[in-house]
Amino acid sequence: MRLNDDEQAMRDGRDGDAVALAMDLLVRYGEALGAERLVDTNNVCGTVSATTPFMRDYAVQKGGMDAVFSEFNLDSDRVVEIPPAKVYTTHLQLGFDPRQGERMGIADEVIRFYQKGEAYTAGHGIQLANTCTPYQVGNVPTRGEHCAWMESSAVIYCNSVLGGRTNTEGRESTGAAMLTGKIPDWGYHLDENRFGSHLVELDMEVESTFEWGLLGYHIGEIVQERVPVLVGRGGRFAKVPNLQRLKHFGAAASSSGGVEMYHLVGVTPEAMTVEQAFGRNRPVQTIRYGLAERQLAWEKLNSTATDHQVDYVMLGCPHYNIEQIWEACKLLEGRKVHTNTALWIFTPRAIKALADQNGYTKIIEDAGAVLMSDSCSAMSRAMPPGTKVAALDSAKHAHYLPAIMGVQAWFGTTADCIDAACTGRWNGRLA
Question: Are 62 and 209 members of one domain?
Answer without folding.
Answer: no
